[in-house]
């Protein structure tokens, strides 16, 4: 996996965790909201139906009492209408009730209402027969008893519905708190994971880049005795480390060869200088012996033979120097090519670093978009808080209106109080959600800061890679300088070889002249002078070769192998 893939994997892991947390938050709060809405609606309807049922029993008793007192037929019709509404409400309440205790109370209320209806029919019969004493006694005895029983059973059912409503509200509140705790724990896990991933990737890249930079600086300073980089992985840093190791080995081999060649050149130049001095001495001896050519012809012949032998040795040394300088030239050319290849690898790393920096910037934009979504969720929570405040006000108004209604409004007052409590709980939950959104926004900002930190590490890696590229350029320049001096050494060797050939030719001419005639002293003198000049030229060339060898040795000494 290359650097870009590693960084993208780390950043996308953080983004995925944040998206998962956001999704869980959305799903959990939607579920709580749906359950909250359905529960509130169900419990409120049951409390309303119970209150309506109690109200209908009260209306039945009031309309029946009014009919018996005034004989108004409309009151009797109202009584029967209230009975029908009672049956409809109690039927709806029974259909939506799934509690055994509530169903038992509903059955008792229905049975008691039927007893009241039977008593009412009997009282209506007394009224229609104008038996005032009969329906009066009936209402004062059985009527009051059944009415009190109806009221007690109705209140017990209403209190049960109110208690169930409070228990359900507490259960929903506990579920909301559990959801908030789960989301907080998941957020903390995501934050810890994101920080660990960011630190792990940045430390790994920085540490490995630092090792490569230290080795490159040692090479640039001429230290080739260092150990190779331990390469692990197949990313761009590993490729760069492999290139640096290869360059280190090539430079080490090249410097050793150049060192050996410079030593050979120095040795050969010293031998050449000694031979040139011997040749000069022999030539001077020949010049001194010209006055007595006849007597020293044999000595001259012997000296010329020695000079020829020395010239041959010089020629052999020059050929060896020429071969060695050619080897050095080829080695330096290969080293320049390897160094140029290493520089290309460094440039490729810089391009990859730029690509990673762009990917990091895109990830930063995604997290900023997530931060904007968190702000939008905060606005929605604000709207929910406003709705809770309005619900609280409506519940307060309902409580005031219920208080004005007196005894008949007590049920609605209880409902209004429960609605007010639920509105306050909704507001508290909304505030908790708002705090959670603030934590998420804070964590998102931290993630952005960590990405900026990772981008700084990438910029530092690019700077290090650029410095490594400059080190490669300095190495190439040093090698090119060595190549130029090697070429100068080769040219000097060729010049010396030409001079040696001239000396050898002169020696051969002197030997031929010595063998053919001892009378040609003038020619021998001229040849001797020419030989002396050539020998001095050889000596000068040998001195120049020795100087080049010393300069080459000085260049090589800059590198420690």
UniProtKB/TrEMBL annotation:
Residues 203-256 form the HAMP domain. One of its GO terms (biological process) is signal transduction. Pfam families: HAMP, MCPsignal. GO terms for molecular function: transmembrane signaling receptor activity. It comes from the Bacteria. Residues 275-511 form the Methyl-accepting transducer domain. PROSITE patterns: CHEMOTAXIS_TRANSDUC_2 (PS50111), HAMP (PS50885). One of its GO terms (cellular component) is membrane. Keywords: Membrane, Transducer, Transmembrane, Transmembrane helix. The keyword Transmembrane helix applies. InterPro entries: Chemotax_Me-accpt_rcpt (IPR004090), HAMP_dom (IPR003660), MCPsignal_dom (IPR004089). The keyword Membrane applies. The chain crosses the membrane at residues 7-29, 180-201. Belongs to the methyl-accepting chemotaxis (MCP) protein family. PANTHER family: LYSOZYME-LIKE PROTEIN-RELATED (PTHR32089:SF112), METHYL-ACCEPTING CHEMOTAXIS PROTEIN MCPB (PTHR32089). This is Methyl-accepting chemotaxis protein. The lineage of its organism: Bacteria, Bacillati, Bacillota, Bacilli, Lactobacillales.
């Amino acid at each position: 996996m290359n650097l870009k893939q590693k960084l993208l994997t780390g950043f996308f892991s953080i983004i995925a965790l944040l998206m998962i947390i956001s999704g869980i938050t959305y799903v959990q709060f939607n579920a709580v909201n749906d359950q909250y809405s359905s529960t509130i609606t169900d419990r409120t309807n049951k409390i309303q139906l119970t209150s309506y049922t109690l109200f209908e029993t009260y209306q039945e008793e009031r309309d029946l009492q009014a009919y018996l007192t005034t004989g108004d037929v409309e009151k009797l019709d109202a009584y029967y209408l209230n009975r029908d509404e009672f049956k409809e409400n109690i039927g709806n309440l029974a259909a939506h009730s799934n509690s055994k205790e509530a169903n038992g109370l509903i059955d008792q209320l229905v049975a008691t209402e039927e007893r009241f209806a039977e008593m009412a029919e009997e009282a209506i019969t007394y009224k229609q027969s104008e038996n005032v004493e009969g329906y009066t006694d009936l209402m004062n005895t059985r009527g009051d008893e059944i009415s009190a029983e109806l009221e007690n059973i109705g209140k017990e059912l209403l209190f049960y519905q109110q208690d169930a409503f409070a228990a359900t509200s507490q259960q929903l509140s506990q579920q909301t708190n559990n959801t908030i705790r789960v989301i907080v724990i998941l957020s903390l896990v995501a934050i810890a994971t994101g920080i660990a991933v960011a630190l792990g990737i940045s430390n790994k890249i920085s540490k490995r880049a630092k090792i490569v930079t230290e080795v490159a600086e040692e090479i640039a300073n001429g230290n080739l005795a260092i150990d190779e980089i331990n390469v692990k992985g197949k990313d761009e840093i590993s490729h760069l480390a492999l290139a640096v190791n290869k360059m280190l080995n090539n430079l080490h081999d090249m410097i050793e060869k150049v060192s050996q060649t410079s030593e050979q050149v120095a040795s050969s130049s010293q031998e050449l200088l000694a031979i040139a001095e011997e040749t000069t001495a022999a030539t001077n001896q020949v010049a001194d012996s010209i006055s007595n050519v006849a007597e020293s012809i044999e000595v001259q012949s012997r000296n010329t033979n020695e000079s020829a032998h020395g010239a041959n040795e010089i020629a052999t040394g020059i050929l060896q120097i020429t071969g060695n300088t050619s080897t050095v030239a080829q080695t330096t050319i290969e080293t320049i090519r390897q160094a140029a290849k290493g520089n290309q690898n460094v440039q490729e790393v810089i391009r990859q670093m730029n690509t990673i920096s762009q990917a990091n910037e895109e990830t930063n934009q995604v997290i900023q978009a997530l931060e904007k979504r968190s702000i939008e969720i905060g606005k929605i929570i604000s709207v929910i808080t406003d709705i809770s405040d309005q619900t609280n006000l409506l519940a307060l108004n309902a409580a005031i209106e219920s208080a004005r209604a007196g005894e008949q409004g007590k049920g609605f007052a209880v409902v209004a109080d429960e609605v007010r409590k639920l509105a306050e709980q909704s507001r508290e939950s909304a505030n908790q959600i708002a705090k959670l959104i603030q934590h998420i926004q804070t964590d998102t900002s931290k993630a952005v800061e960590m990405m900026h930190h990772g981008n700084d590490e990438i910029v530092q890696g690019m700077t290090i890679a650029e410095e490594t590229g400059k080190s490669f350029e300095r190495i190439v320049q040093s090698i090119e300088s060595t190549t130029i001096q090697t070429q100068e050494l080769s040219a000097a060797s060729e010049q010396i070889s030409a001079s040696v050939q001239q000396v050898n030719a002169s020696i051969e001419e002197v030997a031929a002249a010595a063998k053919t005639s001892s009378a040609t002293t003038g020619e021998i003198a001229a040849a001797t002078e020419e030989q002396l000049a050539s020998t001095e030229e050889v000596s000068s060339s040998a001195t120049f070769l020795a100087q080049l060898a010393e300069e080459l040795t000085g260049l090589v000494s800059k590198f420690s192998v």
